[in-house]
Amino acid sequence: MSGMSAASSLRVFLPVLLAVIMGVEQGHSLVCFSCTNQQSNFYCLKPTICSDSDNYCVTLSASAGIGNVVDFGYTLNKGCSPICPGPSINVGVASVGTHCCQSFLCNISAAGGGPRVSGPLLGLGLLLSLLSVLLLQLSP
Length: 140
Known about the structure:
Its main location: membrane. By secondary structure, the chain is of the alpha+beta class.
């Protein structure tokens, strides 16, 4: 993908400038980046003025895969929230990362895709699976 065009840059930064000019301050309305089901943080740079009931900027990232061998996908969601969702979760081949913050456009980062299964761990799992199949074939 080539660099961001001038028109795209204006679409991203004009709302931020407008929010600053209108006097949106940290102590009043919270401003967060927002996006839904994106594969890149590049598409998650849209500023949103949160409602008065929102106290957090939230970034949720979900990924699945096996080390650098198999990639089942990655999705990124950002926005305003009245609460900070539960902690990050990693179940081996899938993970959900949660990041909450409470300041002006603080959710700029992608919060990471979370850890994935390492190569040695995958190798150990395959070895144990093969051993169990061999033992089943050898038993009467």
